[in-house]
Amino acid sequence: MAPRMKPKDAFRFDCPCCGKSIEVNTRSGKARAVKIEESKAGKSFEGMVEDAKGDSQRLNKLLDEAQQLHGSDSDRLEDLFKQAQKKAAEDKDEKPRTPFDLD
After folding, report:
1. Which whole-number Å values give the CA distances from 11 to 1, 6, 22, 26, 31, in the listed order?
2. Using CA atoms, how far apart are residues 89 and 72, in angstroms rounded to an integer?
């Protein structure tokens, strides 16, 4: 039989998906279900799998929207960098400014 955990070494929380109480030993990193009972929501395993698929689809849609929103940022930054390089090449005698030049 495993030695009992000290209260300061245990972190207990309820799973947001199934509602089961889970206990994590902070020293060993091991987790275990404290109460093996039906979920609070009363969902079956198949229902939770369907919910997870729906969440996956929703998160993929959000990721696609974020990629579209920020997709052109790298192109715009690349153009700005090329313009700065071109400007620096035109002014060969001028040194780039540094924070120490502000005195």
Report:
1. 20, 10, 8, 7, 9
2. 26
Output the CA–CA distances (angstroms, integers) from residue 13 to 29, 32, 43, 61, in the order listed: 14, 11, 19, 30
Q: Would strands 21-25 and 10-14 be described as parallel, antiparallel, or unpaired?
A: antiparallel
Q: How confident is the model over 17-36, as pLDDT tens digits?
A: 777 778 888 788 787 777 65
Is 18 strand, coil or helix?
Answer: coil
Sign of CA dihedral 34, 38, 40, 41: positive
Query: Is 80 exceeded by the pLDDT of residue 64?
Result: yes
Angle at 74 between CA 71 and CA 78, to 5 degrees: 150
**H-assigned helices in the chain:** 45-70, 73-90
Domain locations in the chain?
8-42, 56-87
Q: Is the pLDDT of residue 85 over 60?
A: yes
How does the average pLDDT of the chain come out, rounded?
Answer: 76
